[in-house]
Design brief:
The complex is a heterodimer. By secondary structure, chain A is an alpha+beta fold. Chain A has helices spanning 2-15, 18-32, 47-57, 124-127, 152-174; strands at 37-44, 65-72, 77-87, 92-100, 105-112. In chain A, strand 4 and strand 5 form a beta hairpin. Chain B is mainly β. At the A-B interface, helix 1 of A face helix 1, strand 1, strand 2 and strand 10 of B.
Amino acid sequence: MLTVTFFILVLNLIVLPQSIKENVDRAIENCFGKSIRIEFDKLKIENELKKSIEKEVGQKFFSEEVYLYRIQNESDLIGYGLLDNVYGKSLPITFLVLYDYRGTILCSEIIKYREPYGGAVKNKEWNNQFKGKNVNSDLLVGKDINGISGATISVYSVTKGIKKLTLLLDKILDR
Amino acid sequence: MKNFYLFLISLFLISNSIAQDFDFNESKVSIGGYGEIHYNSEKIGNQPTKSSLDFHRFVLFLGYNWSEKWSLKSEIELEHNFVRNGQGELELEQAYINYHHADWFGFNVGVILPSIGLINEFHEPPLFFGTERPVYHNLIIPTTWFGNGASVYSFIGGFDIKLTLFETLNSDKFSFSQGIRPGRMKGYFPDASRFLYSARLDYLNIPGLKIGGSLSFNNAKGDSTNTDVIISEFHAKYVANDITAVFEFGNISYNSGILRQSLGFYFDLGYNVSSLFDWETKIQPFLRYSDINTASKTSSGGLNEKLYHFKEIMFGISIKPIEQIVFKLDFSERTRESDKRKSKFFNLGAGYMF
């Protein structure tokens, strides 16, 4: 009986939170390699900063906080990750943006997509367009980011989401 | 033993807190919609010019998600402002339960849109060139084609696959001038002894390009006719580097009756000129060429196969101050194959989506 309870609890631990957390860990390893240490923190965004970024980008933050990952190798801090959500047509899209220590985008990935349309926004090729962009980039669909037919709403939402995080990280690095 | 239980409880608490940390979904209502107003002017052959002002479509989207996997999507449409004596339409255009298990599997059941052609599922005004939808999407693929049914979908490795079981067409209503269009049942008590079966495959891994096609079969039936209909279509759309290029080709074959084949294609080529001047407002002039024949093969042959065949050249501009709002202008000339009769069209429009 005890063994069964134990098994169920372990299963609960492994299965329930797995998809998002494991996808984040895998995405970070794919971008930075395996010999890294990851520190995770929830970052509460100051109200004034939140409002100014929302105004500049034209999109609200999903909540008061984003998830911040600090990525270190044996001795140094080598980069950051920010995990956040934007709304597609009606459901959240969970996405991760990974930066070098100066705030330049190294990788971006859609961690979880929940809508029946627009799933092509997960494409590696589309996400690769963000590589090398930073706070000085336009990050605008139709300008430096190409769209996807049939995924218009998701493309605009995620691009604005990435711009918000890039501006946010720049402010964090300034301090 | 006590320690072991403590360990189990802490494990449970940790697992739940991690689960909550990464559970971003909240049950919520979402609304959206689109609409378009049109000024249409037409001069058919030698007849005097006719013009009209029409708020063609007003559509409200209402959605609700019970959980991350189960949601409802619906769209109600009012066409031509109001409904009276069979003119104007109030339609339940979409109303389906969506189960989204993961990217590789999901299904929809309810009032759905068959996945045939580029525009039927993605028909908001800012998404296509021209004030009216391309004539191909009126006469060959009859958008908006909605009705009762179910579909399963999968997105794997850049391939987007959808299989649909959809209400039948009414073969009594097929016509030389409009092909299968009048045969749509629009969800109004369709005969459930038969279905339309449809499979669509798209490839999306080349940046900016969507390329694919669909094949659909229906043993359509009415009170006096019964016809096997096969709809095959190919579509490609490229939107990148300020270029928009579209090509669609469709063929409908009918195995009995007087109408035996409907055939059509069109292509669009547009360019975002505002990129040259670094303007924020997007200005896209475009050219469209269409070749449509709703009665390309008939059991009688002869004049009928030329009477409904026309070629059309269109030139127009789309202006988007923001991505969700579009102003449109277009001129077109249509030449009928049978007698070279020329018709001229001039349209202006404004549309939005949110």
